[in-house]
Amino acid sequence: MNNTIIDLVKINKSYDEDIILKDFNLSVHKNEFLTLLGPSGCGKTTTLRLIGGFEKPDSGKIIFDGKDITEHPPYEREINTVFQKYSLFTHLNVYDNIAFGLKIKKTPKTEIDEKVKEMLKVVNLKNFENRKIDSLSGGQQQRVAIARALVNEPEVLLLDEPLGALDLKLRQGMQLELKRIQQSVGITFIYVTHDQEEALTMSDTIVVLKDGVIQQIGSPIDIYNEPKNAFVADFIGESNIISGVFCEDFLVEFSNHIFKCVDSGFSKKEEIDVVIRPEDIELVNSETSMLKGVVKSTVFKGVHYEMIVEVEGFKYKVRSTVSKEVGDFVGLDISPDNIHIMKKVIK
To answer: Coiled-coil region(s) at which residues (predicted)?
Structure first.
């Protein structure tokens, strides 16, 4: 049984002489929360607009539930979009904003009333029917925009950085709310963001993009713990990326020390990159440690201290609940499963 709802097949898209997407392929599954993640200009919003029908590819196909919709305009697609600017009607109350699309379709009044009230429950705005848009907080306005999109019962909801205008605390709360809503309505969400925390918090699947090319597709855990290359490792959270040499299966050398690791399949004496997350480095007594270094800086981050420790010329970023002073000699230990080996990218 095919669980795919959208297939982008060999998509090419340029603006003037700028190539945005080249031979781009992506499959999206039904009831999936998929996030397109990457820096500005990587092609994520263009991908979303192609799926929504707001742009047409120069070549390639967009397949929706087995049917070619490449030439279909937005209103002929079972897809709705929530943009960063919600574009709510300020002269209408919450009820009429949500009901707007249904009224355009000439849906019977009793059905409109039933659907709007059900959607208000889904987005946690019960009894807000008569509120004016201007009286709502940013988070409440965003929920109205989502309800207005979902009330038309699309198969797919596209969200283009909808949390960007919210403050940090509200944004974090809405991340969890969006995931709850997606699970409640049981449809496919395709979400665009450059915020790694948003992607890791909400997604079933993350697609990491750079310069219009997919760098990695995987679950948040896979993307974070098993990055495919240095760009993904550095973009998803923070990483120490150290040049090293693969000795043999399960042994690697870097910072003038041979470590046990869990990787295999590389060539002996192959030059590789080693990725180690700052929180995966343990501060220990320098007399018995794998690595020895000097603390160059210490910053208190609230739940942990972030330190720069210089070892053999490389400056390791270390996160620990234990504080050390600048100039202290410290030991660093790294367990085998916290050492991730990647192919070295030849520039």
So the answer is: none
At 297-310, the pLDDT tens digits run 999 999 999 999 99
Distance, in Å, from the CA atom of 175 to the CA atom of 169, rounded to the nearest integer, reads 10
Phi, psi torsion values for 152, nearest 5 degrees: -85, 5
User: Cβ(4)–Cβ(195) under 8 Å?
Assistant: no
CA distances from 168 to 136, 163, 179, 194, 242 (A): 18, 9, 17, 14, 32
CA 78 to each of CA 72, 74, 157, 188: distance values in angstroms, whole numbers, following the listed order = 11, 8, 9, 11
For residue 41, give the DSSP letter: T
Q: For residue 185, what is the DSSP state?
A: H
Residue 111: CB atoms within 10 A of its CB come to 10
Listed residue (13, 64, 17) closest to 43, CA to CA: 13
Scanning the structure block, which residue is given the tokens 């991908």? 47
- The structural domains of the chain, ordered by start, are 4-230 (3.40.50.300), 238-343 (2.40.50.140)
pTM, two decimals, is 0.86
Amino acid at 70: T
Distance CA 140, CA 45 (A): 24
Q: How far apart are CA 98 and CA 116, in angstroms?
A: 6
Distance in angstroms between the alpha carbons of the first and the last residue of the chain: 42
pLDDT in tens, 34-72: 999 999 999 999 999 999 999 999 999 999 999 999 999
Tokens 């990055």 identify what position?
227
Sequence-distant (6+) residues with CB within 8 A of 221 are none
* Total H helices, total E strands in the chain: 8, 20
